[in-house]
Design a protein that fits this description.
The chain has 3 helices and 9 strands; from the N terminus they run ααββββββββαβ. It is an alpha+beta fold. The protein starts with 6 loop residues before the first helix and ends with a strand.
Length: 171
């Protein structure tokens, strides 16, 4: 005895044959919607917290620079001293109002924190500029190593070669 499909199943089978590609695309779209987006705005993930008033850490930068320069061939263990031109500063949000005669006012934007306390709104924190750099390492006597060190420090700090001093130090 040959088994027959019920009428409803035959209609679904016919619809699947006719609209199979459309249903396949819809299923693929539904699967893509269920995948995580990988962006920072994913639900359940919070963006990394930014420290308020995060200042430039000169000592940490010097240590990182020392580790990097010590990896240059022939340099040996490097010691770095950096000097700064002033400190870091914040650029504050400002509200500019202009009147019809060309005059106006320029005020710093503040935000109320409750209990009558007002805080300014920083737009960005500008790191201080470097004044000079001193690199002391055992390989500092070699002209080739000196050149590599000066190029590296210049690239990482923005200093010109006239503001970078490389000296040979003890092992």
């Amino acid at each position: 005895m040959k088994w027959k499909w019920p009428e409803a199943v035959r209609r679904w089978k016919g619809a699947l044959g006719k609209y199979g590609y459309v249903l396949l695309v819809m299923a693929a779209g539904a699967m893509l919607l269920l995948l995580p987006s990988g962006g920072r705005d994913s639900p359940g993930e919070e963006p990394p917290a930014r420290e308020e008033g995060a200042a430039f850490d000169l000592e940490a930068f010097e240590k990182k620079l020392e580790r990097t320069l010590s990896q240059i061939e022939g340099a040996g263990e490097a010691r770095v001293v950096l000097t700064l031109d002033g400190g870091s500063r914040q650029v504050l949000a400002r509200n500019q109002d202009r009147d019809g005669e060309g005059g106006g006012s320029n005020t710093v934007v503040t935000v109320g924190k409750g209990s009558g306390k007002q805080d300014v709104v920083p737009l960005q924190t500008v790191a201080p500029e470097f004044r000079g750099a001193l690199v002391v390492c055992p390989g500092g006597g070699s002209a080739a190593v000196r050149l590599k060190l000066i190029e590296a420090v210049s690239a990482l700090t923005g200093l010109g070669s006239d503001r970078i001093s490389v000296c040979q130090g003890g092992a």
